[in-house]
Amino acid sequence: MSRSGVITFKGNPMTLEGDELTVGGPAPDFTLHFAGNGLETLTLADLKGKPTIISVVPSLDTPTCAIQTKRFNQELAAMGDSINAVTVSRDLPFAQKRFCGAEDIEMKTASDYQTHDFGRDYGLTIAELKLLARAVVLLDADGKVVYTQIVPEVAEEPDYDAALAELKKLV
């Protein structure tokens, strides 16, 4: 399924591929990759047991995505081990690792570069760009979707305060 009219990129209408997530429904399973001791995987099952914030960005190599990742990294540090925090992009895992090292990012980053299943199943793939839309998804400890925010203009930042307020309700 494709959805038009949800987002723009620099004012140009874009199309999102996949169905919109249902708040209250189960989060779709995923397998993402990250550079740890080699190329490792992260699945939805790995995140169950704690509330999870998934910060979704098109590419860490762009200014707005870098700002979003740094801001959530800073804001979420105080919550420590009480939550899972993951930034998802389509950057290669090794590029994500390099970015995090250069910017002192502690939160996990994971990539949807290989199968694009995360983007499709979460309804966040921008058809025209084959990148992920800017979004924030919150899951409870059981993997249920409790909050979604798709940023209407990809070049703008999310509403951090709204997402963080919802996350704090889960802790």
Helix content: 25-40%
Number of strands: 11
Query: For the residues shown, what is the average pLDDT?
Result: 97
Question: Strand order of the main beta sheet, please?
Answer: 7-6-5-10-11
Total separate domains: 1
Name of the level-1 CATH class:
Alpha Beta
Spell out the helices and strands N to C.
EEEEHEHEHEHEEEEH
CATH fold-level label: Glutaredoxin
Strand content: 25-35%
Which structural class fits the helix and strand makeup?
Answer: alpha+beta
- What composes the largest sheet? 5 strands, mixed
The CATH superfamily is: Glutaredoxin
State the end-to-end CA separation.
34 Å
Q: Unreliable runs, pLDDT <50, ≥5 residues?
A: none
* CATH architecture assignment: 3-Layer(aba) Sandwich
The rough form would be described as globular
Rg, rounded, reads 15 Å
What is the helix tally?
A: 5
EC number: 1.11.1.-
Protein name: Putative thiol peroxidase
Enzyme class: oxidoreductase
GO molecular function, one term: thioredoxin peroxidase activity
